[in-house]
């Protein structure tokens, strides 16, 4: 007489994960749940940037001139809270002590998170703001490190190689009204003082290693 087989073990209680999967799949043979795949919209406008190297994907519309300001069209302006740097995408108003700006002949302005980003921009205006040229820029400004006021970028004195870290937590180009102020900063923070005309592609590449290969020397 054959030996009777033992009864099968009772079914194990379903785990929370199994129960959740059953709820998702349902009882009607539904396929497993997947998050819907969405393709992000492609940016457009002057600052829709694509490519490699230091390229970023940023939409940085210009700030038009507002006659209600009651100031000359090419005068330095306050940094709007929503303005974005067309080079790196940061909001310059959040690091006002480093901000810079350019104003085009028709009154449009772009704002930058730092002098370094401004210099990168001036070397390749058409790349960062398509349809624009450096020749159309009417004014360039950087922030005085000592006073927080605006300085003509061509007339400012810069310090390179100091211990001062810009908004991107890397080396930058703090700006000063004159050589004396720049030299006092050098004594405290290191580096060396240079004029606007001495800022070239090799210097910028030392501060921004991903500088585009087609960077051109900015014009006066």
TrEMBL record:
<dbReference type="Pfam" id="PF05573">
    <property type="entry name" value="NosL"/>
</dbReference>
<dbReference type="InterPro" id="IPR008719">
    <property type="entry name" value="N2O_reductase_NosL"/>
</dbReference>
<protein>
    <submittedName>
        <fullName>Nitrous oxide reductase accessory protein NosL</fullName>
    </submittedName>
</protein>
